[in-house]
Amino acid sequence: MTTLTLVRHGETDWNARRLIQGSTDIPLNDTGRQQAREAAESLRSRLDLDAPLVVASSDLSRARETASIIADVLGATTPRAYPALRERGYGEAEGVGIEQFRETWGAWEDAIVPGAEAWADVRVRAIAGLRAAIRDARRETFPLAPSLVVVSHGALIRELIRHATGGAFPAAGERLANGSAHTFLMERDRLSLLDYAGIAS
């Protein structure tokens, strides 16, 4: 049984312009770096900092830099990156604005975009990525149980919330704020949501 906190990366220029990033590797902007520092300070009150802290992330640069800032502020070792935790690939929609996306493909959850990764595939690889991060964190901190922070992406975290709650959360139209933190419990093959925050309209 492992408690882990998933954090959405800080803002990028594409976030600020409401463009879909997906697996396109867009770096943080200065606002995103500040959001990462604020997320780290917020985590102080959420985490058991008496336990050894391990930070992990997606392999995309916006997540890796967010994770590095959090690790530096909280005194953790250099984060390990996992390709399985990267954002959903959006195919032809990458680089497209939100309004154009809706006009072209319709509602977000129901849209069928050429070349986009299937939601079921996102879920499977995300859970595999979490398991790998948990396994490595336990090895790193054995015999102590780690306090684990994983920095990833909005659509991937949303899919994990949806999976953990049987589709009850998040509500349609809600999006996860950059730098927001969400706590899960992983028990063998079962993922449970303990709390989530940072919902924006």
Keywords:
alpha/beta, six-stranded mixed β-sheet, two-stranded antiparallel sheet, 20% strand, 201 residues, globular
Question: What would you note in describing this structure?
Answer:
- It is a single chain.
- By secondary structure, the chain is α/β, with parallel strands linked by helices.
- It has six helices and eight strands.
- The protein has helices spanning 13-16, 30-46, 61-74, 98-105, 119-141, 154-164; strands at 2-8, 53-58, 80-82, 147-152, 175-176, 181-187, 190-196, 199-200.
- The strands form two sheets. The chain has a six-stranded mixed β-sheet with strand order 3-2-4-1-6-7. Strands 5-8 form a two-stranded antiparallel ribbon.
Strand content: 15-25%
> What is the H/E string?
EHHEHEHHEHEEEE
Radius of gyration: 16 Å
Number of helices: 6
| Sheet having the most strands | 6 strands, mixed
Strand tally is 8
Report strand order across the widest sheet.
3-2-4-1-6-7
Structural class: alpha/beta
Unreliable parts: none
**End-to-end separation:** 33 Å
What do the pLDDT scores average to?
A: 93
Q: Given the C-alpha coordinates, what overall shape results?
A: globular
Approximate helicity band:
25-40%
State the oligomer. single chain
